[in-house]
């Protein structure tokens, strides 16, 4: 394994060596993306993320810093409405790589990486809880932030602002709970 100098040289090594090798290893399912940030990034198809993650781990990326979800609704619909974004890191080389995986459809799903990086377990649960993106093969894909009986996934951009109750008829007690703020002078009578 080669070791690049820390900082910008390490990121340049990722950009000029590792990313081209990754693209050659996964033709047609991975592409380099321009980035406004210092960290190089690639887009990988959902069916390839597991193989790419294993390849990166064998290449020296020994940390999954984090993963998160993004909802591009209403700008994107269909198969790329959501993204799962992974940040991989290599110590002591200080290599960083962002991997973006577009997912969509009625049941967005990607393979779980929780057996490769145990810290992916709670992060995948959070993405499922908040965005409804399923992680195939996850050992315990249950809610982690919302109550077990929560309806829907509240960080989806089409989720009702007032929650599921906004979708149905109001109960009499709800009418006073969600009344709009009115800026009127006090009654002087």
From TrEMBL:
One of its GO terms (cellular component) is plasma membrane. GO terms for molecular function: NADH dehydrogenase (quinone) (non-electrogenic) activity; NADH dehydrogenase (ubiquinone) activity; quinone binding. Its main location: membrane. Its EC number is 7.1.1.-. It is found in: Cell membrane. Residues 42-164 form the NADH:ubiquinone oxidoreductase 30kDa subunit domain. It is an enzyme of class 7 (translocase). InterPro entries: NADH_DH_suC, NADH_quin_OxRdtase_su_C/D-like, NADH_UbQ_OxRdtase_30kDa_su. It catalyses: a quinone + NADH + 5 H(+)(in) = a quinol + NAD(+) + 4 H(+)(out). Signal peptide: none annotated. NDH-1 shuttles electrons from NADH, via FMN and iron-sulfur (Fe-S) centers, to quinones in the respiratory chain. The immediate electron acceptor for the enzyme in this species is believed to be a menaquinone. Couples the redox reaction to proton translocation (for every two electrons transferred, four hydrogen ions are translocated across the cytoplasmic membrane), and thus conserves the redox energy in a proton gradient. NDH-1 is composed of 14 different subunits. Subunits NuoB, C, D, E, F, and G constitute the peripheral sector of the complex. Belongs to the complex I 30 kDa subunit family. This is NADH-quinone oxidoreductase subunit C. It comes from Caldinitratiruptor microaerophilus. The gene is nuoC.
């Amino acid at each position: 394994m080669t070791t690049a100098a820390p900082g910008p040289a390490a990121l340049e090594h990722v950009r000029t060596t590792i990313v081209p090798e990754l693209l050659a290893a996964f033709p047609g399912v991975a592409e380099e993306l321009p980035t406004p940030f210092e960290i190089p990034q690639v887009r990988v198809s959902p069916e390839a993320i597991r193989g790419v993650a294993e390849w990166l781990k064998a290449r020296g990326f020994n940390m999954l810093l984090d993963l998160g979800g993004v909802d591009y609704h209403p700008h994107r619909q269909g198969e790329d409405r959501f993204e799962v974004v992974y940040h991989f890191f290599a110590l002591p080389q200080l290599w960083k790589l962002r991997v973006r995986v577009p997912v969509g459809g009625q049941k967005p799903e990607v393979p779980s990486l929780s057996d490769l990086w145990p810290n992916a377990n709670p992060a995948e649960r959070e993405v499922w809880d908040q965005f409804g993106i399923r992680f195939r093969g996850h050992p315990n894909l249950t809610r982690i932030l919302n109550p077990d009986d929560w309806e829907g996934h509240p960080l989806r951009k089409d989720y009702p602002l007032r929650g599921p109750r906004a979708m149905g008829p109001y109960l009499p007690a709800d009418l006073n709970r969600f009344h709009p703020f009115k800026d009127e002078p006090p009654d002087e009578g």
